């Protein structure tokens, strides 16, 4: 099984084989291949789950773990032997260019090896990881299908395509999603479970089925086919492609993104540093699925300071602002 669960800016997958010992006083001991691991940060049990420090585990796999304070994220890099040697780079690109020769469909689909995923497909995964949805993308004549679960608070979450069933008028993609048990050892870091397969049939429409919950609805996209640019700001149900926080703007700014909100309406305000709303409007996305939105927002001529673009959905229940996204801009 060649799948990947992305941890914040994870460069490669960490396969963790650990044991955990919990005594009556709820202290936690981490055992790696029979060796007790020591850490400056003690593991803890929270809400029935065991949370362990990421660094002490990652370093046992010879991974570099660094903190990116500017972007508020952890970076784990297991590709420590990578160099700028042009010969090795050329060889790597050659391997990727020949990936299709290794495809052998079984039961109507193929799950590609992680190290053979083309760069364009890997970028697509990286751009999509924060959005729970299903997508498909044609590449070199092959039909790639991606299932993403969005952002999860810890490790232990997973998603897997278990079966592909071709019928006369559609293809059923059967999916199983799992989450950690109450006493399961998990990494204390955000993760992004996904599964990627290639479907043999290029023509029939896809129908996604959760094998544990037949009533589950899998979100897709309206207005775009696939996510092809990074998300620069987000809340749970509003994802923004542009503008980026800190962008320098003049008289207008292009606002683009995805949303799945009540009545498909995304409201937005321009707010000055002292909290004054100098402009407000709304755009249309979708409800149920993810709808693409694109607007050109005019900046009032008398604004010449930092301003915040605030996006939100209005609650049907009490009119409060939900799923707020704030993007500071420099005028």
UniProtKB/TrEMBL annotation:
Domain of life where this protein originates: Bacteria
Signal peptide location: 1-24
Stretches with biased composition (Basic and acidic residues): 76-85
Keywords associated with the record: Signal
Domain named Copper amine oxidase-like N-terminal: residues: 32-82
Keyword Mitochondrion: no
One Pfam entry name: PrcB_C
Cited Gene3D superfamilies: Copper amine oxidase-like, N-terminal domain
Chain ranges of the PrcB C-terminal domain: 144-199
Domain Bacterial spore germination immunoglobulin-like stretches: 238-320
InterPro entries according to UniProt: Cu_amine_oxidase-like_N, Gmad2_Ig-like_dom, Mao_N_sf, PrcB_C_dom
Protein name: Copper amine oxidase domain protein
